[in-house]
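Tokens as discussed.
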């Protein structure tokens, strides 16, 4: 309610609540007398609650982050709030709820040890509201005096000059920020700049020194162009080289400030999701997750936002300039009610939000491109005859044995890197051997034989009317995303099942099996290539987070996690719009009845526990009928377990 009260006192409108604004304990900071006359600074602090501390930078500035996941390392961050983010839809006044959410995120990130700076718009809109109110009040009083009546004539508002609006609104805008940040015992400081403050060496040094001192004291600087005195922007004067950028709007100001202050990250919030390959309103527009400097020719710009003087083209130019200066940039939507409350924190955590600008273009396709390729090739795979799909699986089975030396060499490399990081059980799952590859090959051939009628099988046929029958037929699901942990033998198994059922496949394996997964994926694509369906199976080897993959609801039809119960729960939470075929932990019990066959019982117990104990479905509990105690069968089971070195472990667990 404190924000509402100060907002009311600054605009003249009634407060929403009866609270009043108390006095602020103030700290006066003065710039160097030789600095720009347009540089003003105010600060407010709740001194008793917030300690001073210095946050060291984690990396040497000069090179931007190459991948989104690296944004977690950002220590100095500039947040640019566009006019569309700060103002209401009617362009008169500020979006208070939106601003409060942004302030809360900035404070949270700041308390986690990062240095935060805000470049804000909104002074003109705030001042326009105040001036309109004053003009309406003045006109109504004059008309009442002249007419002598209570009824007022229609009043028309004059066109308000932007500089006057900025002058009237700047103090109110800053007071509102102060009130919001004070709720979290966080100090803010206002800095107004013009182009001259960056082009004059002495003024630039003064500005740089002031900002560094504020950050050292854990104060959040709030920077804006001094629109009350700034001249109109000159046309075609955006970029004049790597060391020069004309401050013509807050986009260029944020870029210049980020480079000048050696910021790690610039977050530009606007009223669009990010950068599209065509105007956002068009039906075929696709949001670009990552934008590279050489891709300008692949996009077209739509109209600029309803407020502000920039537009997306200005944002892109400023972002590329900042990127060239060593600052990473993300353009995102700061107005959407569903994401505004966490958009800044999501970006800092490396999540896929908005458009990320990167100088490092990956050698291979993006995960979105891989999914499109898999979907396209999957249609061809689904149209093949059952015998053709069986041939592909049989070829893959042959390749597993023919190229086993290559597979085992890659697996050995993975084992050497993982031996110090994984538990013995996990290492066992990661390990491949000639016998395991032979078993895999046999299993794939069984799939090839048994899946002849997987696609197109009629499950049910109903006669609806004369010469009209309704059939239920098995068809492919579409694109499957299978996420598995440190079990490379899972890759050919899942690939064979996907081929047999005519489904495209997107695979995300554990990084500990990267080399083995790569060679096994190459073999799967080699087998698919005999019918031109090489791209139907894709291996995601980029730094894509699983949570990001789960957001591709328009591309992926089903997610199948294979791993621990924790993995399954995490996937189910992350995939809000994609079906997840999860599994429970299972009950891996073996029960021996008093009438069971001796030979069969011994073989089953040995196979379920001793042959491959690291398997997730290995026997965990052996139940024996009480009538078998102290019988020859029970003694044979104990002897077998002793021979296999499992009796001591199982006996202790029983006790």
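Sequence:
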């Amino acid at each position: 309610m404190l924000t509402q009260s100060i907002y009311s006192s600054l605009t003249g409108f009634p407060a929403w609540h009866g609270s009043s604004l108390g006095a602020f304990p103030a700290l006066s900071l003065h710039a160097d007398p030789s600095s720009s006359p347009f540089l003003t600074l105010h600060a407010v602090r709740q001194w008793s609650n917030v300690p001073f501390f210095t946050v060291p930078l984690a990396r040497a500035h000069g090179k931007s982050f190459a991948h989104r996941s690296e944004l977690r390392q950002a220590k100095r961050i500039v947040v640019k709030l566009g006019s569309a983010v700060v103002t209401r839809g009617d362009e008169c006044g500020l979006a208070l709820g939106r601003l409060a959410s942004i302030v809360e995120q900035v404070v949270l990130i700041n308390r986690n040890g990062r240095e935060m700076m805000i470049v804000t718009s909104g002074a003109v809109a705030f001042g326009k509201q105040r001036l309109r109110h004053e003009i309406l009040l003045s006109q109504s009083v004059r008309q009442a005096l002249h007419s002598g009546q209570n009824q007022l004539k229609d009043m028309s508002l004059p066109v308000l000059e932007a500089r006057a609006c900025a002058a009237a609104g700047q103090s109110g805008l800053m007071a509102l920020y102060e009130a919001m940040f004070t709720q979290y015992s966080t100090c803010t400081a206002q800095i107004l700049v013009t182009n001259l403050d960056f082009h004059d060496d002495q003024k630039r040094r003064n500005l740089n020194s002031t900002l560094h001192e504020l950050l050292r004291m854990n104060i959040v600087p709030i920077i804006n162009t001094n629109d009350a005195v700034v001249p109109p922007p000159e046309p075609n004067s955006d970029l004049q080289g790597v060391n020069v950028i004309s401050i013509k709007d807050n986009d260029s100001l944020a870029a210049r400030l980020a480079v000048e202050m050696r910021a790690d990250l610039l977050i530009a919030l606007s009223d669009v999701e990010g950068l599209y390959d065509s105007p956002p309103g068009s039906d075929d527009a696709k949001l670009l997750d990552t934008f590279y400097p050489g891709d300008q020719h692949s996009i077209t710009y739509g109209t600029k936002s309803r407020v502000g003087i920039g537009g997306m083209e200005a944002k892109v130019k400023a972002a590329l300039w900042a990127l060239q200066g060593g600052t990473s940039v993300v353009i995102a939507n700061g107005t959407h009610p569903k994401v505004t409350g966490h958009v800044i924190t999501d970006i800092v955590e490396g999540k896929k939000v908005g458009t990320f600008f990167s100088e490092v273009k990956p050698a291979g396709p993006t995960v979105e491109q891989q999914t499109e390729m898999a979907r396209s090739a999957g249609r061809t795979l689904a149209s093949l005859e059952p015998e053709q799909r069986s041939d592909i699986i049989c070829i893959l089975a042959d390749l597993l044995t023919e190229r086993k030396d290559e597979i085992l060499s890659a697996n050995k490399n993975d084992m050497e890197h993982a031996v110090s990081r994984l538990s013995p059980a996990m290492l066992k799952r990661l390990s491949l051997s000639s016998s395991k590859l032979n078993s895999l090959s046999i299993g794939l051939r069984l799939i090839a034989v048994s899946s002849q009628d997987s696609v197109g099988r009629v499950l049910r046929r109903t006669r609806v009317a004369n010469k009209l029958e309704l059939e239920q037929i098995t068809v492919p699901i579409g694109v499957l995303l299978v996420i598995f942990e440190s079990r490379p033998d899972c890759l050919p198994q899942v690939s064979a099942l996907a081929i047999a059922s005519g489904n495209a496949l997107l695979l995300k394996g554990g990084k500990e099996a990267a080399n083995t997964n790569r060679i096994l994926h190459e073999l799967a694509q080699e087998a698919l290539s005999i019918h031109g369906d090489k791209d139907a199976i894709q291996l995601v080897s980029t730094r894509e987070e699983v949570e990001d993959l789960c957001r591709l609801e328009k591309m992926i039809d089903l997610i199948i996690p294979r791993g621990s119960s924790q993995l399954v729960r995490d996937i189910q939470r992350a995939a809000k719009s994609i079906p997840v075929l999860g599994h429970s932990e299972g009950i891996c019990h073996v029960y021996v009845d008093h009438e069971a066959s001796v030979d069969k019982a011994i073989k089953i117990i040995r196979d379920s526990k001793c042959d491959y104990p690291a398997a997730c479905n290995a026997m965990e509990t052996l139940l024996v009928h009480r009538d078998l105690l102290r019988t020859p069968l029970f003694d044979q089971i104990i002897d077998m377990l002793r021979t296999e070195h499992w009796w001591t472990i199982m006996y202790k667990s029983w006790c």
